[in-house]
Amino acid sequence: MQIGSCWFDMASGQLSNQENDTSWKMPASEHAILSLLANHRGQVLSNAQLIAVLPVAESSLARLEEAIDRLRFFMGNNSASLIESIDDQGFLLHVKLTRSHRFLSGTPGRSITKQQYLILIAQLILLLLLLYSVFEPSTKFLLHKEQFIQHSNGEVAYYPVYHSHDQQVVMAPQFEHLVNQLHQCDRLDWDKLFCSWSDDNKVMSIGLKKDGSQGLMLKNVKAIAQGRGFEFVNKQWLVDMEICS
């Protein structure tokens, strides 16, 4: 189902943002709320109706509002306005955007900006490699020496990217957890993996690069912290995000 710049796969609980080519395997609460809104698109649903579909342990107005905020955040500025708050009584998912931002197709991954976005990501990755191999790393940008994960189909180089020493102290354990889960994968079909976090440590971006017979392949996956961080990242999540198999 197309929701603004996003494709919502209701069956799998995955929301794909076509504007920046990122995917999010939604937690149960966010999935339940967006499914109910999508099934009643164009209708106002009360807070009580939406809270009723939340897991028992999370059935509260605060959790509902948090889930709505997370959905809007992932959908981005161009599509977040599709979810409208109605006088603190409930929420409405609009059928279409009132703005003129449109995409070429209602199928995932075919937006008019995807080509430009892939070129930008390629340039950023090449710039990171150039900065690290030629210049001394900046005090405001910490790109660590490449390390490798050995798999049956070869090795994958990975790089944690920190904005500061403070962020490195906080997020290094989260990165170690990611690497441990990558070791559990049966196969990794990428050459390089970059991992970075937003300034508030709530969003993790995983950039993937591969030089194959069909040319350069790039992928970016965004994950939003839950509870104590990114402990939900496991082998199954990595498979769902097509990072490994």
UniProtKB/TrEMBL annotation:
Keywords per UniProt: Membrane, Transmembrane, Transmembrane helix
Record flagged with keyword Transmembrane: yes
Domain of life where this protein originates: Bacteria
Protein name, as recorded: CadC family transcriptional regulator
InterPro entries for this protein: Sig_transdc_resp-reg_C-effctor, WH-like_DNA-bd_sf
Bilayer-spanning residue ranges: 117-135
